[in-house]
User: Fold this.
Amino acid sequence: MSFSLISSLRYDPALPAAVSQLAINTYPDPVDTPYYLLAYHRDRLITAAQHFQWEKALAWLQQDLRTLNQFLDASIPDTHKPWRLRIAVNHNGNGTVDVHPTAPIDPSNLLVPSVNATPDSAVWRVYVDTQATTPSGLTTHKTTSRDAYNAARLRAEIKSPADTAEVLVVNPEGEIMEGSITTPYFRRRDTGVSGPSWVTPPLDSGGNAGTTRRYALFQGFCVEQTISAAELANGEECWLSNGVRGFIRGVIVLDR
Assistant:
């Protein structure tokens, strides 16, 4: 196979204390690990291996969380600093970890915004892609085959992973699928219905089943709702999230 299954996550030594102080009863187990949403990352990779019928990869991924934690520990250069990790598993069941420095953040930004009401993160510019992306197994599951996402970022003139900008990927029906590196959350359109104030695109629209997306849904921060790109308004506030940066405020930019 020409691609590997991947999942990107944050190692942050400050995370366990933040969970203990702010979300001990709501953060998913294990609560004492510095690896952000560790169990969700393993589950995501297992689901991808099942989809692609990679039996050897599935056998490697079905190790217990303690073993996975120890496997990741071996790759951490300095346990006192935060790191961005990318777990990759090929069809032969060979797992590797790439580790890169990442900027420190307030660890409460890793918790759902209902817990963290006043995040200190910068507001990201959020563009809408000008071309459609066809959903497939390579959009539903995160892999190293990311040409569609890279092309969307180029069209939005996002030139670096360090840019505080994101582009929303759109399917041929004009529905928002996801962000190129994040899950988006929008203000609820059917305001007369009780429940969370935020919505995120359903997987039926073609996007990825992200780990922070699962966390936000589980915590009741949002519900699923189909979002048409045509519904978005210039200057509209939104949220973004991923497994390295946590939850980030955004603003829709339609007119450049």
